Each structure stands twice: as C-alpha cells, then as structure tokens.
Amino acid sequence: MATQKATFGAGCFWGVEETFRKIKGVVSTQVGYMGGTLANPSYEKVSTGTTGHAEVVEVTYDPTQVSYEDLLETFWKIHDPTQVNRQGPDIGTNYRSVIFYHIHEQKAAAEASRDRLSRSGRYRRPIATEITSASTFWRAEEYHQQYFEKRGGGRCH
Fold it and tell me: Is there a smaller number of Cβ atoms within 10 Å at the N or the C end of the chain?
C-alpha cells in the first residue's frame, strides 16, 4: 500500500485530528506545526504567534480508500475558511486556515476545490484559506497527540 500525506490547518489541531482520524482510508494522523521559521517549535512558542507556524494535522492516507478531494471536502466542512487568523475563540496566526500541499496535484486539487466553494455562494465573505507548499513538519508534544481520544472526548470550539 502506497500511502500519501496531506497537511491541514483549521484552528485548534485537537478537533481537526479527531475528525480526520475517523475517516475510512486514513492510516494515521499526527498534530504539529508547519509554515513558520522557528526550528523545533514548542506549543508555548507557537502560541505566541511570533513563529509563523500554524497548528496542523498531518494525515497519512491510502488513496485507494479515500481521495485527496474527499479529505479536502472534510477540511472545508469542519471550520470557517473565511475567518482570518482565527477559528471561533482561538485567535492568532497559529490558528489560520491553511492547506499545505505535498505534490503539485494536491495544489491543483486544493485550488480547484477552493474556487468551487467560492463560487458556490455558501459564504458571504471571501475564503481566506492559504494554499502553500508544505515545509518541515514539526511534531507537537506527545500530550497533544490524539488529545480527545486520551481524554474521552471534548471540543475545541
């Protein structure tokens, strides 16, 4: 089985990870940080909003069981992509809406998906989601991994 990776930022990574973990065809997930300048970032440093990193979920999936387009559809449904640098009560660049693509086909699919959503009339405000090339993924501290599963459920916002 040849797996692929997809990386999404849609606010607090706990709930985003929980949602993607439940999708058939997703082999594994891990939460972490991407898109900034600081090497080996910590949650404490990322939370200051000065590192440029976003809270993200790296999804490893089997494309024979779930398509990248299906993952994009989930991404759009689980947050408000019109909010700039926030989701619900979580405010800061670390909570921005972002798709980090790993291959050119993901970039094209993400842009096409965003454009369809923009034309759909679902939102009155423009979509603020960044679509950018994946950079180094920095795995978050262990206590953040599968946070809700370890604690018997919960919600971010």
Answer: N
Rounded CA gap, 36 and 109, in Å? 24
- Stretches in the chain below the pLDDT threshold 50: none
Give catalytic status of residue 156 as yes or no.
no
pLDDT, tens digit (0-9, with 9 covering 90-100), for 80-93: 999 999 998 899 99
Closest CA to 13 of 29, 2, 27, 24: 29
Q: What share of the chain is helix, strand, coil (3-state, %, to 5)?
A: 30, 25, 45
The partner residues of 101 in beta bridges, in order of sequence, read 133
pLDDT (tens digit per residue) in 106-122: 999 999 999 999 999 99
User: How large is the angle between the packed helices 104-119 and 68-77, nearest 10 degrees?
Assistant: 40
Token duo for residue 96:
């921005």
Catalytic residue among 8, 9, 11, 12: 12
